[in-house]
Amino acid sequence: MSGNKVDIKVVLLGKSYAGKTCLVERYLHERFNGETVPYQNTIGAAFGAKKVDVNGKKIVLGIWDTAGSERYESMSRIYYRNAKAAILCFDLTDKSSFDRIRFWIGELQTHEEACKIYICATKKDIIDADPNTRDVNEKEAQALAKDVMAELYETSSKTGENINELFMAIAQYYLETVKTTEVKEDMIYLNEVKKRLPCSCKST
Ligand SMILES: Nc1nc2c(ncn2[C@@H]2O[C@H](COP(=O)(O)OP(=O)(O)OP(=O)(O)O)[C@@H](O)[C@H]2O)c(=O)[nH]1
Question: What is the pTM assigned to this prediction?
């Protein structure tokens, strides 16, 4: 990492009102304005960045909070292009928001194959306070996550539960993958060197 360079592009996708902006607000600024400020839909997208320390390595996450409104859907590809991680948000109290993430999974699988998917079930505090408000079956969410090899996090932007954990997992996975790639590249390089060695070298 050098200067203000963004190391990992992370994009948030999901239905309008799913809780994407609050998730980013909580992570970047450790605050939740949901009880004091009326809901305002995101227009286009918003960008924020945060430097994190993963086992002594500092990396910068560049986070794109996209608009959930279907009106802006065609623009979303601009925001998820080259993203290393996508957080697909759904609201635990709204089944239609869960159904919507299948659309985003399809988009990413078609256009951004290398992007790692994280599924984020938001507003956990609401269902903790009243389990009857749960509109998405936990097993169904787990099954979908397993299907697409995604990790599933249940979060609350009100309490902050699981939010640092989610972004830390993204950063850690990124670093592990970078390391693996470097190792792979070294291996390829060694193979190439072996292939090019003159025959006389084999016996030495
Ligand atoms: N209790 C509770 N309310 C939440 C939580 N997250 C979001 N909300 C509320 O849900 C509403 C929508 O949240 P936003 O974060 O603005 O939703 P969004 O997905 O960014 O919406 P768009 O910008 O339209 O795409 C707001 O009224 C928030 O206060 C949460 O974790 N707990």
Answer: 0.88
